[in-house]
Fold this sequence. Notes:
By secondary structure, the protein is of the alpha/beta class. Helices cover 42% and strands 18% of the residues. The strands form 3 sheets. Strands 4-1-5-12-6 form a 5-stranded mixed β-sheet, sandwiched between helices. α6 links the parallel β8 and β9.
Amino acid sequence: MIIVLPLGAFWRRIAIATAFMFTTSLALAEPPPAQIRLGGPAVAVSGKDYWGWGLLGIAYTNGLFQEEFKNDATTLKFISLNTVPMVGEAMASNQLDFAGQGDLISLIGRSAGVRTRYILPVSKLSNAYLAVKQDSSIKSVADLKGKRVAYLKGNYIHLQVIRILAANGLSERDVRQVSLDQATANAALATGDIDALFGGPEALLLRNKGIARIVYTTRDRDINATAQTGLIVRDDFAKQYPQTTARIVKVLVRAAQWGSDPANEVSVFGPWWSFRLQDAIREDTNDRSWSQRASPLFDPFLVAQYHDTYRLAKELKLVRGKDFDLDQWMDHSFLDQVLKDLQLENHWQPMDAQGTPIAEVKK
């Protein structure tokens, strides 16, 4: 049976339905928190502090966080954390809502019971370098046996070193390990207090000054020994503020889109890197396009790298807590929605587990 409503009743029904939909959308709209606390490193440049690195640094320097929340009564607090343990401690003690962390330390924290989710990669394919003094007899990784070798234990470089040593028939037990941060290690190498150091592109500065030689690098050689870092969020924050969490992810996806644009190839090295480091960073990153480095995708390469890091960390007893489901911890639901909303689902080219762009594999 077909019921025909009078015209006035019809429009009243439409008005009621519209009002219901509007009320429902308001109910679904989430008031953001009064404060959002983001943790990351600070870099001092010409008297100013630039916060963050990778996508975090791009988003911060370009004002993308501030732009996203400009109409909200929300304070954005960018907390500078200069050491790896400080990040883990800040998350564990509820001093942060979001933090940029390297693969190893974020896995250690989650295994220790810190309830987090990994929601976005913020930098990929970070290279490692082995530097020795100019007059050193060390000419390869194999020559490190019995030598004093500096790198920061627990940091992302730690597992890179383990992988590099293993690929050359060595283990940590074969070297005299000295745990130093990059700046202290640089100074110790210059004074001869250590024989070699593993580090990031800062090691290139020692070479440029004539202090050191680079005898090994993962660049153009071993993609499986590169490091990956990501954005983690406290699980209770993500549950209470899922829309706000998605907005933070959206900010970083916009940063990734900007960083992947060839028109920004020069600017991408911008002020979030120390000016003295810019030439070293350019050299360090010339093995892979910025589109690959800035890709926010949970592609097979990223997932495989985290699985291997977790496996290796457990074997070496660097992770001592309870086992957890890595695939559940890596929550890409926020990214999936953001990519759909911004129509960027096919913007980046994923890599397979070996680091080969998938489109090239299919040819």
